[in-house]
Design a protein that fits this description.
21% of the residues lie in helices and 28% in strands. The protein has 14 helices and 35 strands. Strand 1 and strand 2 form a beta hairpin. It is elongated.
C-alpha cells in the first residue's frame, strides 16, 4: 500500500463545482475533477430499485463524475438482491441486470442476499459483470471460498485493492438451510490476511466492502475490524443501516455507510496527489435530480414483467379474508390469524405476532395471486425469530391492547397465543398473565419461548421496545413469501379461517353514556366503560336550589327524585342515562316531562359499549365496582 499523506478530514474542491451538501460536492457542467478518485457506494437497498434516489440516480451520478474527469469506482455493501417483489419474483436476476447496467465494480454479500440459498447466490454472482466478494465465507468441506475474495482495480494508473467481508451473523440472519455447509470465518483474521495479500500485489489503496455494521449488539463491528487491522484505507459498510454523513475514522480508516433504501448515495473522494480522503453523502434532503434514461427504461420493463408474474395463482379461498383497516387495528380477524400462522409455519416458532397496521388489504373469495399477497404485505418486511421471555410476551400484549377499542397500528394479530383482557382497566393493566395461554398452556413469565414476528416489530416498531433487548435468533424470507408458502400448503382456507379463531377476547363490557339538563346546575356528562355484570354509581351533586327530578335509562324513567346519587347494579347492556334537574326556575325541555310520576321507577339493566375515558364535568363523580384480578 502506498499512502501519499495521512487521511485528511476535508479538502477544497475547484471553484467550478456546484455544492449540494456540506459533505459532498457534485460537478457541474465543465467542472474539472481530474486528479480525483470518487467512490460511489450504496448499501442495504433491499431491492428498492426506484424508491428514493434509486439506481437511476446512482448511475447518473457516476456519469456526472466521469464526465468531470474523475476516476470513478462504484461499490455496494450488500442486502441488495432480495426484498421487494421486483427482486424476489425474479430470484434476484432483475437486480443483477440493474447493477450491471449501472456499472458497479464490486459488491459484497449481505445476509439477505443468501435468502435464495448459497447455490443461487453463487449463480447470481456468476451473472454479474463485476465480482461479488466475501473472503470470509468458505465451504466447510473444502475451505474454498463460496464467492470471490478480492480484486485489484486500476484507475488512472492507481491500483485499488478491494476485498469483501460478509456478516458472521448470516448463519442466523437467513434461513439456516441457506447457509448449510458454509463457514463464516473471523472477519478480523480474514481482513488481516487480505490486507497482507493486497499489499504484496503493490496496491496503492486498500478498500474493504463489508456487510458488517456498527450495531452495538454485533459481536464484531466494522469499527472493531478497522481498529484491529492496520492498512485499510476505506471501509464501505452495510448491515446496520447506519447513516454516516461524513464518515467516521478509526485507526486511520475512513468508514462510510449510507443508511438504507438508497435514501442517500455515498461519495468518498480521494485526492490522488495528496492521498487525502473525504467521505460524505448525497443526502435525501439534497434533492439530487440526476436520472439515467437507460436505467429507468430497464426498471420500467421489469415492472411490466412483474405484473404478469404477480398474476400467478398460489391458492384459493372460499371465505372473505378480512384485512380492512378498521378491523385489523382493533380486533382479531381471520386474515390476521392466517398471517400470524404463516409466521409460525415458516419458522417453527412457539408463537407469533404481526401488527395489524402491517396488513394493508383484504382478500376476496376466489383465486389468491402473488399480487394479492404483496398487496396485503407491501413493505418488504422479513420474518424473524427471537428467544423471548414469557414476561416480555405479557408486556407485548399489554402494549398491543392499550388503546382498545381505539384503532392502533400495533394491535396484535397472534398465533400460538390466546388471551383475554379487561378493556375497562387502565392501559398497561388490562391483561392478567393468568389469562394468557401459549401453545395451549398457561404463560410462564420466566420461561423462554421461540417467538416469530416481522423485522419491524422485532426492532421495536410500533413501540414494541420490550422485544428489542432480545437478539435475533434467525431471519427468514419476506412476509409475502411466508404467506405464499403457507397458503400453498393448505387444502382449504375456509375450513380453518371461516371466522376469527377466538385467540383475542376482551371481557364483555358495556358503555354508560350520561347526559343531563343543566338548568343552573353543574351536571354529569360523559361516558364510562364497565365490565359485564358490574355496578355503577352516579354522584349527581346538584347546585343549591336544585334537585334531581328524575333519571331515565334508554328513554324510560327508572327513578323519581332519587336524591343526589343513583346506583345501577348488574349492568348487562349499553345504557344511555339522562339526569333531569329541577329548580324553582321555569321548567326546561326534557325528553319526558311527567308531573311527579306516581308509577314506581323501572329498574331495567344498565350497560355500555366502547368509550374508554369517563369525562364527567366538575361536581359529578362515577364509582365502578366489578371483577379485578389479584396482582
Amino acid at each position: 500500500m502506498k499512502r501519499f499523506l495521512s487521511i485528511a478530514l476535508a479538502f477544497v474542491m475547484a471553484f467550478s463545482l456546484a455544492a449540494v451538501s456540506s459533505a459532498v460536492t457534485i460537478p457541474s457542467d465543465g467542472a474539472d475533477m481530474s486528479g480525483k478518485t470518487v467512490i460511489i457506494h450504496t448499501n442495504d437497498s433491499h431491492s428498492r430499485v426506484d424508491e428514493n434516489y434509486g439506481f437511476t440516480a446512482v448511475s447518473a451520478l457516476k456519469k456526472q463524475y466521469e464526465a468531470a474527469g474523475a476516476n470513478v469506482l462504484v461499490f455496494d455493501a450488500g442486502d441488495t438482491l432480495h426484498g421487494m417483489p421486483i427482486a424476489t419474483m425474479f430470484e434476484g436476476e432483475s437486480i443483477v441486470d440493474i447493477l450491471n447496467l449501472v456499472g458497479y465494480d464490486a459488491m459484497t454479500a449481505g445476509n439477505h442476499d443468501f435468502n435464495y440459498g448459497s447455490d443461487k447466490l453463487a449463480e447470481l454472482a456468476g451473472k454479474m459483470d463485476f465480482p461479488v466478494l466475501a473472503a470470509n465465507v468458505t465451504y466447510k468441506e473444502t475451505s474454498e471460498p463460496l464467492l470471490g475474495t478480492n480484486t485489484v482495480i486500476v484507475r488512472g494508473g492507481i491500483k485499488f485493492g478491494v476485498f469483501g467481508l460478509a456478516s458472521p451473523e448470516t448463519v442466523y440472519k437467513t434461513h439456516p438451510d441457506n447457509v448449510a455447509g458454509l463457514d463464516f470465518l473471523d472477519p478480523i483474521e480474514t481482513a488481516s490476511l487480505q490486507v497482507a495479500e493486497l499489499n504484496a500485489q503493490g496496491c496503492d489503496y486498500i478498500i474493504c466492502i463489508g456487510h458488517i455494521g456498527l450495531d452495538e449488539s454485533t459481536e464484531i463491528t466494522s469499527a472493531d475490524i478497522c481498529g484491529a487491522v492496520d492498512g485499510i484505507d476505506v471501509f464501505i459498510d452495510g448491515h446496520s443501516h447506519t447513516v454516516l454523513p461524513q464518515g467516521m475514522t478509526v485507526n486511520g480508516t475512513v468508514i462510510a455507510s449510507t443508511g438504507e433504501y438508497i435514501k442517500n448515495i455515498g461519495v468518498v473522494t480521494i485526492d490522488n496527489a495528496t492521498g487525502a480522503i473525504e467521505a460524505g453523502l448525497v443526502a435525501e434532503t439534497d434533492a439530487y435530480e440526476g436520472r439515467d434514461d437507460a436505467v429507468d427504461e430497464l426498471i420500467g420493463g421489469l415492472r411490466t414483467e412483474l405484473e404478469a408474474l404477480l398474476g400467478e395463482v398460489v391458492g384459493y379461498t372460499d371465505v372473505y379474508l378480512n384485512g380492512e383497516r378498521q378491523y385489523v387495528r382493533t380486533q382479531e380477524t381471520n386474515l390476521g390469524d392466517l398471517a400470524a400462522d404463516a409466521l409460525v409455519y415458516v419458522s417453527g416458532a412457539d408463537c407469533a405476532m404481526t401488527n395489524g397496521g402491517g396488513i394493508r388489504a383484504s382478500i376476496e373469495v376466489g383465486d389468491i395471486t402473488k399480487g394479492d399477497l404483496v398487496t396485503v404485505f407491501p413493505f418488504g418486511n422479513y420474518v424473524v425469530t427471537k428467544h423471548v421471555t414469557g414476561s416480555a410476551i405479557h408486556d407485548m400484549l399489554e402494549h398491543g391492547v392499550r388503546a382498545y377499542p381505539e384503532s392502533l397500528g400495533g394491535f396484535p394479530q397472534v398465533s400460538g397465543i390466546e388471551f383475554k383482557f379487561d378493556p375497562t382497566a387502565e392501559a398497561y393493566d388490562r391483561v392478567d398473565p393468568k389469562d394468557v395461554l401459549v401453545g395451549g398452556e398457561p404463560l410462564e413469565l420466566e420461561r423462554e419461548y421461540l417467538f416469530a414476528t416481522n423485522d419491524f416489530i422485532a426492532a421495536g416498531g410500533d413501540g414494541y421496545t420490550m422485544l428489542c433487548e432480545f437478539p435475533i435468533a434467525t431471519e427468514y424470507a419476506g412476509l409475502d413469501e411466508a404467506l405464499i408458502q403457507y397458503i400453498s400448503s393448505l387444502q382449504s382456507i375456509g375450513s380453518i379461517y371461516s371466522a376469527p379463531l377466538g385467540r383475542i377476547q376482551p371481557y364483555p363490557y358495556h358503555t354508560v353514556t350520561i347526559s343531563s339538563t343543566a338548568n343552573g346546575t353543574t351536571a354529569p356528562t360523559g361516558s364510562k366503560t364497565v365490565l359485564d355484570g358490574a355496578s355503577l354509581t352516579i354522584d349527581m351533586k346538584p347546585d343549591a336550589g336544585c334537585y334531581v327530578w328524575y333519571v331515565s335509562v334508554n328513554g324510560e324513567i327508572v327513578a323519581v327524585r332519587p336524591g343526589n346519587s343513583i346506583t345501577f347494579e348488574n349492568i348487562t347492556e349499553d345504557l344511555n342515562v339522562f339526569v333531569c334537574f329541577k329548580a324553582d326556575a321555569p321548567a326546561v325541555n326534557v325528553p319526558v316531562t311527567p308531573s311527579e310520576p306516581s308509577q314506581p321507577p323501572k329498574t331495567g339493566a344498565v350497560s355500555m359499549t366502547a368509550a374508554a375515558i369517563c369525562a364527567i364535568a366538575s361536581g359529578a363523580a362515577l364509582a365502578v365496582s366489578g371483577r379485578k384480578w389479584e396482582r
